[in-house]
Amino acid sequence: MDTVSSEQLEEIIGRLTTLERKLDWVAKRISRDGYPLDSAARPQPRPAPVASPPARPITTRTSSSSPAAAPAVQQPRTPALATYPPSKPVLKAPSTPSQKAPTAVAPSGATSAADSDPFAMRPMREKRNEGNIGRYVLSGAAAFLIVSAAVSLIALVWDQIPDVVKVTALGVVAVSLVAAGTVVNQKRERLQVAAATLTGTGGALGFVAVIGAALIAGLSPVAALGLMVAWAFVLLLVSCVTAQFFTAVISMLGALVTVGFTTWQVATHPEQAVLAWTLIDIYTVTLAVVAAILPRFTPRMRLAPWLPTTSMVVTGTVLLAGPSRLLVAQPLTGIVLLAAPCAVLLAQAHHSTRLLAGAGAREAAGYEWAVTGIIQALALLILASANDVTSSTRNGMAMSFLVLVCLATAALLPQRATSPWLRVVAAVNLGTVVCVAAAVFALNIALLPPAVAAVALAAVPVVRVGYSAPVLVLPLFSTAALLAVFSPDRSTVMLAILAVLIGVLPTAPLEALLAPPPHSEEHANRPSWLSAGMWVAAGQLVLIIPRLLDRLVPAGGLGGAGRIAAPLLAGALALALAGMGAFTPQCSPRMLVSGRRAGQLAGATDLRSPLVPTPPALAWLGEALLTALAVAVLVRADSLGSPLLAAPLVALALALVVVGGRMLLPWLRHSAMSLTVTLTIALSQSLALWWSVMILTGASAASLLITGVVLATGAACIVIGFRLRATTLRHYGLTLVLLVVFKLAVVDLAGQNSLSRILALMVAGVVCFGLSLAYNHFAQEQEQAEHGAIGADSAGGISPAGRGGSSYPR
């Protein structure tokens, strides 16, 4: 007994000695590396080492009473990397300093090896985020494996376990796990991931237990739905108490399971569809309210602003999973039940995006609003395009969604234009409204006017924050009215015309509401957006409205006068727009309506003073478009078969070609392209004149009347060419005269009698003689004028502009 006691005592003494040795070692390391300020052992800077004889080694005498001797105290030295103390005392041999390689003393602030590691310089936040991702991924994997194990265990002994026991045991386990996770979260701050795993696993098992009770234990569907809703709210509250967003995600997944269970129940028992979807709508509203309130009471949760987003996922799923059979069985009740989640989702979007924008996640707020609009458009197409849904029910469903979108847009109007949240969501809201309006238009083309009106309303907040794109988007969206030409219903065509007017008329007021550009890119692109919007609006006025009017007015109505209404309207609008300055650079809708560009020409101050050496692209475009429109008008006039009805169209066509030629007139003499400009103007107007005469008189192109008109045209070109000193125009007129002479001598006279031949030759000869005299007279006048101008120039130095030369800057 004494022997045993003495052995234990010796063991205890040995352990105490070892512990003392370790404490001494730690103390020495602290005294060497730490160097307290008040410590006398703090080393002082030593001078450079000098040659000295080797020091005698210090011998340590070991006491016989102690099992081991303490290590000898050495002089302070340069700090080095710490090593774990040896388990036994080791006598270190004294080192002899080298005379040739003196040891340098490292400063106390020397950089350690860990500091030189590049990965150590990574921001702590990035490391923490990476760690959180790994923890929660593994936590989710653990929850999945545990749930899978539970399911596998139940499947293994499924038949031997009573149903009530199965469900009760699973429910007890779920509640226990959630309670344990909550306790661990409150008591152990370092076990947050484990606590989240416990609560998440328990939450998932709770939903499995409720579904199992409904499937095998005879629980009624309504009771099962109530239990799942209650359990989801419990998990949501637990996530706020524990400040764990992971539990809120589990609650969201459980809510999705609840929605899926309800959808299955409605498909299995259609007679319970109204009751089931009423309950699910109430659940959606309640969940949205709770998720909106909880962020105010969870200051510890870093992701608290994202709590409403979890409920928005549930609301969007409810909206997409709505049973369309409700619209067939009870249309009015079905519209209310299926449109209610849309209203809830829009309200959630307003609240959630504000929270995200306030938390610094503005980009995420924009994406969230965009996804909301896409879900609404898809839900509308899915629900309203189902089989057996009547057209009135479809229209009612579409208008319900459109009204809700307009209300959500109207809520943006009172906001300040400088609000950061409004700057984020205004432009995105315009895109979502366009999506919903396109879905409405796809369901029924007759609903295009309210759809365009919704887009116009959504454009107002965007221009208030300084973006000019809506000035183009609005008229561009209303171009869908062109599809109404294929509709046999006249009322649809009238509604399409109304939609075009709704899309075109607000463009100038929208430009007037424009705020200053929010950034340099918008400032640079604004003239392009406004000019493009003006062109699209003008195109709708000149092309789409006359085309719809032509489809609306019967061809045989009013004694055939209905066929001239559309071309007259198109030509008159084109002349008005050209006169107001539509073909001037960077002309916006507001400039066009205000008349500030009226009468102006692109690239010229007036008809004789070009500002650039060659005609700009807008001048060529205006001449081409107006000439093409004149050709279309003459084609319609030629098809009427009545000179009386064709006369207004002929006059309009001639006016169009004259106005088109006016855009190129400043470069008739003062340009290197005067040949091209002159031929373009002369050919377009000559052909329009000859065709007009043929339409009004019914004469053919080879008749003597048209030959005489061509001869008169050539004579006029010669005279005008001399007056304007346009050599190309004179040559063009001379060419026409020679062609007429050739035609009279070779073609026309071959089929006439002798008297007609004599008269034709005599008249042609007299005309040519008169033209010869006139040509000679004008040529002499021009030669004298040029000689006089040269003499005056040498005497007084007349400028080129005074001689009729170019006035544009060289």
UniProtKB/TrEMBL annotation:
Chain spans, region Disordered: 32-123
Keywords on record: Membrane, Transmembrane, Transmembrane helix
Compositional bias per record (Low complexity), positions renumbered to this chain: 57-80
Keyword DNA-binding: no
Composition skew (Pro residues), residue ranges: 44-56
Keyword Transmembrane tagged: yes
Taxonomic superkingdom: Bacteria
Designated name of the protein: DUF2339 domain-containing protein
Biological source species: Actinomyces glycerinitolerans
